[in-house]
Design a protein that fits this description.
Helices cover 0% and strands 53% of the residues. With 76 residues, it is mainly β. A hairpin with a 2-residue loop joins strand 1 and strand 2.
């Protein structure tokens, strides 16, 4: 188990959403959301996952002008 603040966390899952953008050479965005949940118990067999963290990655698409290493950026 992982400690998440003041409570114990049984498991977590990352959900990845990709927006390829709509313009040639435009920006692609990847959003990663991490959810965690407490362990199942007899009283709560299906605990609800809770959003713990989210971040986004951006990159220019390669179908336009040539990309260079500085085009990858992250934001919280």
């Amino acid at each position: 188990m992982i400690r998440g603040g003041h409570r114990r966390v049984a498991y977590g899952v990352a959900v990845v959403d990709v927006d390829p953008g709509s313009l040639i050479g435009g920006r692609t965005t990847i959003t990663v959301s991490y959810y965690h949940s407490s362990a199942a118990t007899a009283a709560n067999r299906f605990p609800t996952p809770v959003l713990f963290d989210r971040f986004r990655l951006h990159r220019l698409r390669r179908d336009g002008r040539p990309a260079h290493p500085g085009h990858l950026a992250a934001e919280r």
